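Final report, closing paragraph on structural work. Over the funding period we assembled a curated collection of sequence-structure pairs, and we close with a single example.
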Amino acid sequence: MKHLLFAMAVSAALVGCSDHEGSPKGPAQEAPAADVAAAHAADVATQEKYGVNYRSYWVDEANGKVFCLVEAPDAAAAERVHKEAHGLLADHIHQVVEGD
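Its predicted structure, as stored:
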């Protein structure tokens, strides 16, 4: 069974396009959306191997945050994709339920 996960990154050490409060270059203010797009593309290129589907991402450049929505068997699988794809880790990963 796959779970819907929401990730957020807050620091420079990101994993699992989830909740990233930082970016590959440090705070998101220093990493343009194009850099985040490249990291997401790397996730998509790697995800099938782990049974993961990175569905979407959002960048809040003003506050230095990156958010991702991912379908995965568990949070560890989402993290494995991030580690292999670009080495960035999410600060927080939350399981969520999609509304109607």
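The mean pLDDT is 78. Helices lie at 33-46, 75-85. We thank the funder for supporting this effort.
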